[in-house]
């Protein structure tokens, strides 16, 4: 291949894929609590086993730990440890307020790196953060 030949980017999106211990609890958190929409799913024996969730231009996938025989399997390691997904958005404060109104325990927003940041933890310990640009002073905390 010629060094001067430019290759067009082929990757279009990165989508986090979380293994979950209780898909019903995860769906309640992401759909009912955060407003994600299930746009694709695999149902096996009447139960959602895998799904694609969409929120605006962002997505994530969930799959339960059910084995082929239908029995639940839980990995020996604690799920979610060290995993954070940062969603860039127009208004993290609006997401914070909406999540709180839906019963989600969200951390009070603060300003870090010129962005409002709020975070919450899903039922398996995966941390999701919502961030939006701001000109508020660094380390400001939202007054409630």
| CATH fold-level topology | 2,3-Dihydroxybiphenyl 1,2-Dioxygenase, domain 1
Indicate the CATH class: Alpha Beta
- Counting structural domains, the number is 1
Number of H- or I-type helical stretches:
2
CATH superfamily: 2,3-Dihydroxybiphenyl 1,2-Dioxygenase, domain 1
The H-and-E topology, N to C, reads as EHEEEEHEEE
Anisotropy-based shape = globular
Beta percentage is 25-35%
Describe it.
- The chain has 144 residues and is α/β, with parallel strands linked by helices.
- It has one domain: 2,3-Dihydroxybiphenyl 1,2-Dioxygenase, domain 1.
- 15% of the residues lie in helices and 35% in strands.
- The chain contains 2 helices and 8 strands.
- It has helices spanning 23-33, 92-101, and strands at residues 17-20, 37-44, 47-55, 58-64, 84-88, 110-112, 115-121, 127-133.
- The chain has a 4-stranded mixed beta sheet with strand order 1-4-3-2, covered by helices on one side. Strands 5-8-7-6 form a 4-stranded mixed beta sheet, with helices on one face.
- Strand 3 (47-55) and strand 4 (58-64) form a beta hairpin.
- The protein starts with 16 loop residues before the first strand and ends in an 11-residue tail after the last strand.
- The relative contact order is 0.18.
- The mean pLDDT is 92.
Task: Throw out a few tags for this protein.
144 residues, 4-stranded mixed sheet, 2 helices, 2,3-Dihydroxybiphenyl 1,2-Dioxygenase, domain 1
Helix and strand arrangement:
Elements: E1 17-20, H1 23-33, E2 37-44, E3 47-55, E4 58-64, E5 84-88, H2 92-101, E6 110-112, E7 115-121, E8 127-133
Parallel strand pairs: 1-4, 5-8
Antiparallel strand pairs: 2-3, 3-4, 6-7, 7-8
């Amino acid at each position: 291949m010629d060094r001067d030949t430019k290759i067009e980017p082929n990757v279009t999106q990165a989508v986090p894929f979380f293994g979950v211990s209780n898909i019903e609890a995860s769906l309640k958190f992401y759909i009912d609590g955060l407003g994600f929409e299930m746009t694709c799913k695999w149902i096996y024996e009447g139960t959602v086993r895998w799904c694609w969730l969409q929120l605006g231009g962002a997505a994530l996938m969930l799959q339960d730990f059910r084995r082929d025989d239908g029995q639940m399997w839980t990995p020996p390691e604690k799920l979610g440890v060290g995993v954070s997904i940062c969603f860039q958005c127009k208004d993290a404060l609006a997401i914070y307020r909406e999540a709180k109104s839906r019963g989600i325990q969200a951390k009070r927003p603060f300003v870090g790196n010129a962005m409002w940041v709020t975070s919450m933890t899903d039922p398996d310990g995966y941390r999701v953060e919502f961030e939006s640009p701001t000109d508020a002073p660094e380390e400001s905390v939202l007054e409630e």
